[in-house]
Structures are given as structure tokens and as C-alpha cells.
From TrEMBL:
InterPro entries: Alkaline_phosphatase_core_sf, LtaS-like, OpgB/LTA_synthase_biosynth, Sulfatase_N. Keywords: Cell membrane, Membrane, Transferase, Transmembrane, Transmembrane helix. Pathway: Cell wall biogenesis; lipoteichoic acid biosynthesis. Residues 252-539 form the Sulfatase N-terminal domain. This is LTA synthase family protein. It is a multi-pass membrane protein.
Length: 625
């Protein structure tokens, strides 16, 4: 079919609005990506998903008649420009992009010390410059609007074809990222990364999709009977028959330290006759130490650990609570400590938006979140601000806090893949496992151990420990499953079973009391979910909606995991093989009625926890009071 030049000219003019939209939107989104990650920017990585997302929008525009199409593209272009300006300004302060959660929880720039006007720069409005191009184009277009009337059927057909092409290509880009970063798309733990590698439109579409699907899940009604059943279970679960250690924290500060990737196998362990964690070993001797304490995180990883210890509820089965349920009401540790006139804050020297923390901490009612912006980033070790500088600067902050306070500190430097050997400057001889992940990890945790020792010693010297209770624990494993053989070799475990693996999934947990009181070792099988009820008993806080147990007043040693596995201290149930192991002998044992009952109870606990989150039940329970 030969197209004469006149027809070609008409075709190009009639499609000018589409062409301009595609070029300008691609350019703006690419420039935005460069602005949020100048150091690692590679347009080749992001240009395709950006174009695919623009093609989807163009596909939608084809539904409209010509003038309507141009108007749709014009308005869409303005909206994209405004989103880019807002994300640019937000990124300038939070090093993050805006999400629905940020808007919903009002974590905008309101609390920003420097006013928003200081953050907006004239060049930000360059994103709107093309609108001026569009206006003349519109005039030209109206003048030469020679495009033939296109029937609704043809318009629908072109919408379906073009939108489908764009959506399939875009979907493949998103799927590829989900393979490279398995948890990222569902947990959205690093919004900047998604925006950087998929383009800002795709990020916001994914964010909207996640929020909408969570909203739909929560629309499923829950029967009043089920609500009552959960409420009754919760009140029974936290009723104590004894009152050991009750209210011993009255008027005292609470300092809770969550240590990045502190896995228990390093405690009191040596390599080449050197202690790996000499400082923690020393402080464990001055504290009450729980040597059968398990992490219970799921795909929310670090943020799940925080959620467990501050709310005593289970993490989400998939995705991250910190992202999916940041709009819920919680009876969190911070909220209940606030009600006791404590000053509550989180201290973590990393980007405020990572794991949606700045949004979630507002929901948990922390008075303040001292994030990366509140620290002098004078030294980097591992993922960001060094533990040494973070802890030294945090001590200075804490000495100014109104007392009594609850301070929740989260360390960072001992973060996977533990390869900052220069920063760790470790004196540990890890031969013959140097150049392995485990060898690198030992150097990393040896570094963090030294900083924790310095911090605790300084707290002691400052006299702050005379009136503070300190809880320190690890957030999750350090050696991932695909490197477990290194760990078995290090531990000298031959022919490992799932029981060996599970027994290695412990993290240290210590509680230090003034004057080193109550020190010793507690062998009870416990988990992160039990920390909050234990604190609640010590500080006389209400224990209303907790699924964990107060470790000083419970016989219950059941530790339940998100995947349905559990242990009662005698037997370990591994859900993925439906197998029971006797902990003492390591042998596989048959299911008994009691074990069956515990298996069912684990699933009930997980179900209740999911219902509490999906239906925002704490808000309902509080409103009915
Ligand atoms: C970042 C740090 C790491 O803030 O907490 O989180 P993780 O990758 O361990 O979940
Ligand atoms: Mn972590």
C-alpha cells in the first residue's frame, strides 16, 4: 500500500500530540531518575519501562476522539509533571519518593525543619516547561486538525492493541525486577529503587495497586462472632497468674537496641582463638540472657522484627506490615509508653523512608524518628552511617531526652553482604574462611560488637544505666539459606537436618537491669513476639492486643513462626516437610494429639494476627470501649 507524501504529512500532523507526549514524558521521567540517583544512573536500564508506561497512557488516550485525545494527553502530562515536582522536592528532604501511605499518614514535609519553600528550587518547574510547547501545538493542531473522524470501534480497537502491547512489555519489566529483587515489589521496602529502575509512573502505579489490593482484602467483612472470639483470645492470652518483675521498670528509661543481622552462633564463639563478640559476651554476663530466643520475621525482614517487638503481633504472610498496614491503629509500645508520659523515639541512621518507617512510626505514635537527616553522616561503614558514629551521636541525643524515655535504636553496619572490610577494620583472623560470606560476616559483626561495647560502656559511665533497662536483640539471620553450608561447616555440623537449620535461627536477646541485677541465663524457648508483653509487665503497661507472652510470668514456651512451624522447647515442627523433630535426640517423631493441637493453635494465632491487621481490629476494639 503506497502512502503518498500528503497522506504521510497528514498522518504525522494528526499524531503530533502522541509523538510529543511520548518524547516529553520519556525525557522528563528519565531526567527525574537521573536526579534521584546521579551516581548510579544508566538510562539504558530505565528507558524501556518508562517508554512502556508512556505507551500504556497513549493507549488509553486512543479511546478519545482527536481533540479529546490531545486534551487527555495534555492533562496527563501536567499531572505527571506535578508528580515529578512533588517527588523531587520530597526526595530532596527524605531521599525517598511519595507513596499513598505517605499521603495517608501525612508524613509530608510538614515536620521538615526547613520550610517547603526552601526545598523547592526554580529548576523543578522545568518539568512544566513542555506545557508551553503543548499550547502552541494545540493551536497548530486545531488549525490543521485534519484527522479523519475515527469510529468508536476503531478507537477501542487501537486502545486495546496499544495498551496491551505497553502493558505486556511493562509487566515483563516488573516481573524481571521481581526476580532480581524477590521481596521488593510486594513489600515496597525501597521505593527509590523501584522508581529508579522502573520509572516513576510504574512506581506510583505499583503503589496504587498494592494499596488497592490491600484495601480490597480488608473490605472482606469479619463476623461479629469472629471479632468477639479474637478479643476473648487476646485477653486470655495476656492474663498472667503470677506477677514476677511487675512494674520494676517504673520511672526507668527503656533502651531497646535492635542489632542488624546479629545471629546467635557468634555469641561466646571463637575463631583462631579470638572471641568474635567479646563485648556482647561480656555484657551477657552482666544481664539476663535468653539463649533460646528466635527471630520470627517474614518478608518484611528488619521491619518485621521491629513490628514484632513493638506490637506483639505476627508479620504479614507476604509483603511488609510496615507498608501494607501503616494506616492501621496500633496499641504499640510507643503509644502505651506515651500514655505513661514517656518520651518515645526511634534512632536509626538510614533513609527515613526505607521500609516505610517514617510512615509506620507515625502510626505507632513515636514522638520522634531520628533518621539519617538527624545525623552527621561523617563516616560510612556497610550500608550507611557507621555504627560507631551512629551510636556516639545517639548517646549525645539521648542525654538530652526528657526522662523517662523509651529509645528504640536500630544499628546498620553489619548488613548483608558484610563486604566493607576496610570499614570494619577488623583485627579478627578469619582464616581459613576469609573470602566467604561467613568470614566477611564475622568481621562485620566483630566491628558492630566493638561499637555496641563502646556504647554500653559509655551509657554505664554516663550513669544512665542506673535508671534504665536495656534490651538488646538481633533482628534476623545473617547467613542466608543458600550459604547455610558455610554455617554448618563453621559449626561442625555433619549431615544437617531441618532441625539443625532451625536451631541456628536463634538471635541473642539480653535484658540488662540497673546494677547488673537479675543476671543469668534463661533457657526458655522464646521469640521476638514475647518482648512487648515482657516489657508491658515490667512497665505496667496494658497488655490488650498481644499474641506473645510475658517471659517472666508464663509457662508457655511455644514459639510460632510465620510459615506455620513452631517449637514448644521439646519438639520442633517444620511446616514445609510436615515433620516433627525431638530437640534432644534430633530424631523425627510422630505427631501426637498435643502436637496436633499446637500445630492448629499456631495457625489460629497467625489467622487472628492477619485478621487484626486486615480488618484494623484494634481500632474497632478501641472504639467499642
Ligand atoms: C535499613 C536496614 C536494613 O534501614 O534496617 O534492613 P534489612 O535489609 O536488614 O531488612
Ligand atoms: Mn536487618
Amino acid at each position: 500500500m503506497n502512502i503518498n507524501s500528503n497522506q504521510l504529512k497528514n498522518f504525522l500532523i494528526s499524531g503530533l500530540d502522541i509523538l510529543f507526549f511520548l518524547i516529553l514524558v520519556t525525557l522528563k521521567l528519565t531526567l527525574f531518575d537521573k536526579s534521584i540517583s546521579p551516581e548510579h544512573f544508566n538510562y539504558k536500564l530505565v528507558i524501556k519501562p518508562i517508554i512502556y508506561s508512556a505507551i500504556c497512557l497513549i493507549g488509553i488516550s486512543l479511546i478519545f476522539k482527536n481533540k479529546g485525545r490531545t486534551r487527555f494527553l495534555y492533562i496527563t502530562n501536567i499531572i505527571i509533571s506535578l508528580i515529578l515536582i512533588a517527588d523531587t522536592v520530597y526526595f530532596r528532604y527524605f531521599k525517598d519518593v511519595i507513596s499513598v501511605g505517605v499521603l495517608r499518614n501525612g508524613v509530608m514535609l510538614g515536620g521538615v525543619k526547613s520550610s517547603v519553600t526552601d526545598l523547592i528550587k526554580a529548576q523543578d518547574f522545568l518539568y512544566l516547561l513542555d506545557i508551553l510547547i503543548f499550547i502552541p501545538l494545540l493551536m497548530l493542531y486545531k488549525k490543521y486538525n485534519i484527522s479523519p473522524k475515527i469510529s468508536i470501534y476503531k478507537r477501542l480497537a487501537s486502545f486495546i492493541i496499544i495498551f496491551t502491547i505497553g502493558a505486556v512489555w511493562d509487566g515483563l519489566s516488573i516481573y524481571k525486577m521481581s526476580l532480581d529483587q524477590p521481596r521488593l515489589i510486594t513489600t515496597m521496602y525501597n521505593r527509590v529503587y523501584i522508581s529508579k529502575f522502573l520509572g516513576d509512573i510504574n512506581f506510583h502505579v505499583l503503589d496504587l495497586y498494592n494499596v488497592t489490593s490491600n484495601k480490597i482484602a480488608s473490605l472482606k467483612t469479619i463476623s461479629p462472632q469472629k471479632e468477639k472470639e479474637i478479643k476473648t483470645y487476646l485477653s486470655k492470652n495476656s492474663s498472667n497468674t503470677t506477677s514476677n518483675m511487675k512494674n520494676i521498670g517504673k520511672g526507668k528509661n527503656l533502651i531497646m537496641i535492635q542489632v542488624e543481622a546479629l545471629q546467635q552462633f557468634v555469641i561466646n564463639a571463637k575463631i583462631n582463638d579470638q572471641e568474635i563478640t567479646p563485648n556482647l559476651n561480656r555484657w551477657i554476663k552482666k544481664s539476663l540472657y535468653f539463649d533460646n530466643f528466635f527471630y520470627q520475621v517474614a518478608s518484611g525482614n528488619t521491619s518485621d522484627a521491629e513490628f514484632l517487638t513493638n506490637n506483639s503481633l505476627y508479620p504479614a504472610a507476604s509483603g511488609a506490615v510496615y507498608y501494607m498496614y501503616a494506616g492501621n491503629t496500633y496499641s504499640s509500645l510507643a503509644k502505651e509508653m506515651n500514655d505513661k508520659n514517656y518520651y518515645t523515639s526511634v534512632l536509626h541512621g538510614y533513609s527515613e523512608g526505607f521500609w516505610n518507617r517514617n510512615v509506620m512510626y507515625k502510626a505507632e505514635k513515636f514522638d520522634d524518628f531520628w533518621g539519617e537527616k538527624s545525623y552527621n553522616l561523617d563516616e560510612t561503614v556497610g550500608l550507611g552511617l557507621s555504627d560507631k558514629s551512629f551510636l556516639n551521636q545517639s548517646l549525645v541525643k539521648m542525654q538530652k531526652f526528657k526522662q523517662p524515655f523509651y529509645s528504640f535504636l536500630i544499628t546498620l553496619s553489619s548488613h548483608f553482604p558484610y563486604d566493607d572490610t576496610k570499614g570494619y577494620d577488623s583485627d579478627l583472623n578469619v582464616d581459613p574462611i576469609e573470602d566467604t560470606l561467613t568470614g566477611d560476616y564475622l568481621n562485620g559483626i566483630h566491628y558492630t560488637d566493638a561499637q555496641l561495647g563502646m556504647f554500653l560502656d559509655n551509657l554505664e559511665k554516663s550513669g544512665m544505666l542506673d535508671n534504665s533497662i536495656v534490651i538488646l536483640y538481633g533482628d534476623h539471620y545473617a547467613i542466608p539459606k543458600d550459604k547455610t553450608n558455610e554455617l554448618y561447616n563453621f559449626e561442625g555440623i555433619k549431615n544437617p537436618t531441618d532441625l539443625n537449620w532451625f536451631q541456628l535461627q536463634k538471635v541473642p536477646m539480653l535484658i540488662h537491669f540497673p546494677k547488673d541485677d537479675y543476671k543469668g541465663i534463661n533457657h526458655s524457648y522464646t521469640g521476638q513476639i514475647d518482648i512487648y508483653p515482657t516489657i508491658a509487665n515490667m512497665f505496667n503497661l496494658p497488655q490488650k492486643y498481644m499474641l506473645g507472652h510475658d517471659l517472666f510470668n508464663t509457662k508457655n514456651e511455644t514459639v510460632m513462626f510465620r510459615n506455620g512451624s513452631f517449637t514448644d522447647g521439646t519438639t520442633f515442627y517444620v511446616s514445609w516437610t510436615n515433620t516433627y523433630y525431638d530437640i534432644k535426640t534430633g530424631n523425627i517423631v510422630p505427631e501426637t494429639a498435643q502436637l496436633r493441637n499446637l500445630k492448629d493453635k499456631t495457625l489460629v494465632n497467625l489467622e487472628y494476627s492477619d485478621d487484626i491487621l486486615n480488618h484494623n481490629l484494634i481500632k474497632k476494639f478501641e472504639n467499642k470501649k
